[in-house]
Design goal:
The structure holds 2 protein chains of 2 kinds. In chain A, 69% of the residues lie in helices and 0% in strands. Chain A is mainly α. The two termini of chain A are 38 Å apart. Chain B has one domain: Orthogonal Bundle (ABC transporter involved in vitamin B12 uptake, BtuC), CATH 1.10.3470. The longest helix of chain B is centred in the first third of the chain and has 29 residues. Chain B is globular. The model of chain B has no long low-confidence stretch (mean pLDDT 90). Chain B is built from 13 helices and 2 strands. Classes of the chains: A mainly alpha, B mainly alpha. Chains A and B meet through α5, α6, α11 and α14 of A and α4, α10, α12 and α13 of B. Chain B: InterPro entries: ABC_transp_permease. Chain B: GO terms for molecular function: transmembrane transporter activity. Chain B: Keywords: Cell membrane, Membrane, Transmembrane, Transmembrane helix. Chain B: Its main location: membrane.
Chain lengths: 371, 307
């Protein structure tokens, strides 16, 4: 099974050697096909809307208005983008090694619980020290949680897709147990939660924006992940192992360490998403942590074709759909599951588009090569 | 003092719970056995289960007949399976990823169309009181056997016989073990796989109808919490043998009944941890039977999950 990009030896090839048209043709396939697939998915969803008697034009108009129409809606969209960036990386990084890890939700909720519980103990620390410590603790919990899936895959051959989804259910049960039991703040009556965070431990907004720091950290982490995969020998080794494990082992690459470190890194990022949800959004750890970001992250990673840089625009797009959910429910009288249906159609479309690569002559560099 | 069973109430409640909870596991795992024996994996059965639960409930409510609901759920499941099968026949399309997408789509569609059916009450499926010989209400409750449970056992034996002794069973097994051998015999592997996936989807749909029409017996968005996914792991545990699926379903059903059974005798401490028992059990079973160096015994040769 290969879901990772094939190792693209020609990436470093300067386009001067083949002519810029050939270079452009070769590179644009990876952008044009996913965009077409996305549009096809949105079109199929439009047909679905017509079948249930709603207007697709109204729907997409409302989405645009609610997600990108004003500075308030941009703020709403961008504050949902942060956790999605982390969640998508938790899928994309293991995918570089050919693993389909879909349990990021588990690392998010446990990272959040870790941050929420630890914050109570660190209340007397200054924020500048305590907040990074909370981030580290949440990353550590997430790294162990998802890294264990990688280890089980490598050491025992356990299917990582099923195992990671099972551990997500276990993590949510564990979170419910912890916030209703050992870590519960007795004052939280209606919604069991950990103790509310001290004001100085709460993560604030990016100066000049109404969006918390999670977004900026998420963007930086996406760029760093891209550098790791595309510009380091460690990332290059991972891409080789993702293409063919046996060949990588014959080459003497440390496949086990690669698998564990990439899954753990993905888990660490997902844990960080939970920490930001607690410190910047909810103010304590509770069941709101299981908001489904981990599952939307799966779709984002696939739409971005597991490329960390592409995750950024795709996450903004999908966050926009989620941000407009409330307005669509009110204005069009559609159920809240509407966005889920839309995501399902887009997901199927993007997977089907895999069979289109290499089919279109217009993308073949030979056609454009000078001389 | 005949109602005061003390700790005996726990095993009785677990046995009864195992019988009640196992039926959806049984149907989904039998559907998955059929699909996987043909060499394909359908991870989307969780979505099929949820959609089956919704469509079964809605049709039972509209027509007043629970059996019409079961049929509708089977039909809807077959459609989902058919779509999965057709999509996976396209070159370079990954069956595991399509399964994840179909899981999301199935749940999304079920919640979308199921919203109006959360309040109304649909008729339940009938059941047989096999506990009539006992005076204890707990035993009577535990041995109230649903018709679908018995149908599921019959289906397990029928599938077992089909794989062993019929031409259809042989065709599915050949396709599942080697695409090349199947082609050489003049079979069309992707057609066989598509039909096997559709039939498997129909079984999963029936499992969903059991959830909404018998136990827990109502439709809501939290009706399935991973039973469809656990059933996939259960199939590996049962080594693709339909009769072993029945035993494994009872085991998983018993694990699922642990939390409610303890709660019924007043143990509420750590309720969520008991609730997680089936997931933990599934995970450990998966770890125990997997192996790094060799394929799992009994696995169909073309199955991507064990490669």
């Amino acid at each position: 099974m290969t879901i990772a990009d094939p190792v693209d030896i020609g990436t470093r090839e300067r386009f001067s050697s083949e002519g810029w048209l050939a270079w452009l043709a070769r590179r644009s396939e990876a952008v044009v096909i996913p965009v077409l697939a996305l549009l096809a998915g949105l079109a199929v969803f439009g047909v679905f809307l017509m079948l249930v008697g709603k207007s697709p034009a109204d729907f997409y108009g409302l989405v645009f208005q609610a997600a990108y129409g004003s500075s308030f809606s941009w703020q709403n969209t961008l504050s949902r983008t942060g956790p999605l960036l982390f969640a998508a990386l938790c899928v994309a990084l293991p995918a570089k090694l050919g693993l389909v890890v879909i349990g990021g939700e588990g690392a998010i909720v446990l990272g959040g619980v870790a941050a929420g519980a630890l914050a109570a103990a660190l209340a007397s620390w200054p924020g500048a020290i305590a907040i990074p410590v909370l981030g580290l603790a949440a990353s550590f919990v997430g790294a162990v949680w998802i890294g264990a899936i990688g280890w089980l895959r490598y050491a025992r051959g356990v299917n990582e897709t099923i195992a990671s989804l099972l551990t997500a259910y276990i993590a949510i049960a564990l979170m419910n147990h912890l916030v209703e039991g050992p870590f519960r703040d007795p004052a939280s009556l209606n919604k069991p939660s950990t103790a509310p965070l001290a004001e100085h431990l709460r993560v604030g907004n990016i100066p000049g924006w109404d969006v918390h720091w999670g977004l900026a950290v998420g963007v930086v982490v996406c760029i760093l992940s891209w550098l790791l995969i595309d510009r380091t020998t460690w990332g290059f080794a991972a891409r080789i192992a993702g293409g063919n494990v046996r060949a990588a082992e014959v080459q003497g690459l440390p496949v086990g360490r690669l698998i564990i470190s990439f899954t753990a890194l993905g888990g660490a990022f997902a844990g960080l998403a939970g920490m930001f949800e607690v410190t910047a959004v909810h103010g304590s750890a509770n069941a709101s942590l299981a908001a489904g970001y981990g599952y939307t992250g799966i779709l984002i990673a696939f739409l971005a074709r597991q490329n960390p840089l592409a995750i950024i625009p795709v996450a903004i797009l999908l966050a926009g759909f989620e941000a407009s959910s409330g307005l669509i429910q009110r204005r069009m009288d559609l159920p809240d599951a509407t966005v889920l249906v839309l995501q399902g159609f887009v997901f199927v479309a993007i997977l089907l588009s895999e069979s289109l690569y290499g089919r279109f002559k217009i993308f073949a560099p030979e056609r454009w090569r000078a001389g | 003092m005949e109602n005061d069973l003390g700790l005996w109430a726990i095993p009785i409640a677990i046995v009864g719970g195992a019988i009640r909870v196992s039926t959806p596991f049984l149907f989904v795992s039998l559907g998955e056995v059929l699909t996987e024996r043909s060499g394909r994996i359908n991870l989307g059965l969780e979505g099929t289960l949820v959609f089956g639960a919704m469509s079964g409930y809605a049709v039972a409510y509209q027509t007043g007949s629970p059996w019409a609901g079961v049929l509708a759920a089977a039909f809807a499941g077959a459609i989902f399976g058919l779509v999965h099968g057709v999509l996976c026949s396209i070159p370079k399309v990954n069956d595991i990823a399509i399964g994840i997408a179909m899981m999301l789509l199935g749940m999304g569609l079920a919640y979308f169309f199921g919203k109006p059916y959360i309040q109304p009450v649909a008729p339940d499926l009938p059941s047989f009181p096999l506990g009539w010989w006992s005076d204890l209400p707990q035993v009577q409750a535990a041995l109230r056997i649903n018709v679908l449970f018995i149908l599921g056992i019959a289906l397990a034996f029928a599938l077992w016989w089909m794989f062993r002794a019929t031409r259809v069973g042989l065709v599915i097994r050949v396709v599942g073990d080697s695409t090349d051998a199947a082609r050489a015999m003049g079979l069309r592997p992707s057609v066989v796989r598509t039909f096997a996936t559709a039939a498997g989807g129909a079984f999963a749909g029936i499992g969903g109808a059991y959830l909404s029409l018998y136990y827990p017996g109502s439709w809501n968005e939290g009706i399935s919490s991973g039973q469809g996914l656990m059933a996939v792991a259960l199939v590996i545990f049962a080594r693709w043998n339909p009769i072993a699926c029945f035993g494994a379903s009872l085991l998983f059903g018993g694990a699922g009944a642990l939390g409610p059974a303890l709660q019924s005798v007043g143990v509420s401490e750590g309720y969520y941890l008991y609730y997680a028992a089936p997931y933990v059990l599934t995970l450990f079973v998966l770890i125990a039977i997997s192996s790094k160096s060799q394929a799992i015994t009994g696995a169909p040769g073309e199955l991507s999950i064990t490669k």
